[in-house]
Amino acid sequence: MKRYGKAGIASGVAVVALIATGCAPTSPTASEEFVVDPSMMEDAAEGVVTWCAQKDSSGAFAATVDAFNAEFEADGYTLELLEFPESTDEWRNQFVQRQEAKSDECDIFSSDVVWTAEFANKGYLYDMTPYVEDRSDEFIPSTFETTEYEGKNWAVPYGTNVGFIFSRTDRTADAPQTWQDVYADATTAGTLAYQGSAYEGLTVNFLEIASANGGTVLTEDGSESAINSPENLEALEFMVNGLAVGAASPAVLTYLEEDSRRAFESGNAGLLRNWTYAYVLGKQNPAIADVLQMTPLPPFSDAGQPGSGILGGTNMVISRYTDNPGASLKAIDYITSVDGQVPAALIGGQPATIYAAYDDAELQEALPFYETLVAGIEQAVSRPVTPVYALVSRAIYSNVNEALSGSVTPEEALENADAEINEALNTF
């Protein structure tokens, strides 16, 4: 049981309409009652804030909790960590079960960036727009895309990630400048390793190339599929041709992140598309440490678009059912500050979302590629923003995988994906 030291814990939150009607809205998107703003931190009730998060074996979250408590416990605020299983599905399910039960057990939650629209649509979250706008200058702008749904911000960017191209200076003299360079180099430098198995990783890998070619997944209002476009077809045909000419090995059709990284580090691949952790681990491998180079994802030839990474990471959200939104916001304010994000980067390897974190000398020493990292994050975009993202992603990765394996043509793959995405969009 949580105990709070002040009356009026809903200070700053208009709940009169709820009390009068005796019921809650089906979604905060239809109501203005559940909104947090910076002033709520000043009047926050004392007590315990529970941070629900995916299990973190690095200890970064626990270190942040300890630091918060050292600073604020004397003022009556305590942060506690409740860790959910490592499995992404169970991490999500544990939170959803509590929200469906209207439980106040989780005051704040570390949410995967792709869940924002779904959770907002279901009425699980506080609208954080005023608070996010107040801190907007602090953050790398692209990371806000992952917090938005229907014109509002439902989360605060906490940790981010983006893909890069890794190559070896002993096999390729210059870093590739376009995706065409990547595949051309791969035909002579020992193939490109990427995540081609039928799972979320392939959705990201495909969208990185498609977005760089001007392709999109949904219409601007998110109501219909836009996957079956000339830009996306050209990107998929490019990937299929890469397998046909030997720029990528058929083995990539079974690769997850670690499979591709191991192929690159062992010398079986000359180039690699992966996340930032691959650089850290590669620098620990004497076989490639001195020849490893990392570059942001490149443009798609002369498409007129910049290179386009696809953002990963986590956001911090406030549960609609918290008893203390003010203290919850105070906790998130700390977790997403320099004091919270630098330890997350140093201990947990989680790239920060605020510029000031990259001014930290210790972080710069630990991540000597930080300038390249920030550049990659700045040019990245979010995955499709929709409450049915999981179904949309499945339509992409399953059909793209079939095209890469030769089971269907690229045209058939996008036609099938288009139908499946529209079917998913019609479910909400």
UniProtKB/TrEMBL annotation:
The keyword Iron-sulfur does not apply. Keywords: Signal, Transport. One of its GO terms (cellular component) is ATP-binding cassette (ABC) transporter complex, substrate-binding subunit-containing. It comes from the Bacteria. Pfam families: SBP_bac_1. PROSITE patterns: PROKAR_LIPOPROTEIN (PS51257). GO terms for molecular function: maltose binding. Gene3D superfamilies: Periplasmic binding protein-like II (3.40.190.10). Residues 1-22 form the signal peptide. GO terms for biological process: maltodextrin transmembrane transport; maltose transport. Belongs to the bacterial solute-binding protein 1 family. This is Carbohydrate ABC transporter substrate-binding protein (CUT1 family). It comes from Microbacterium aurantiacum.
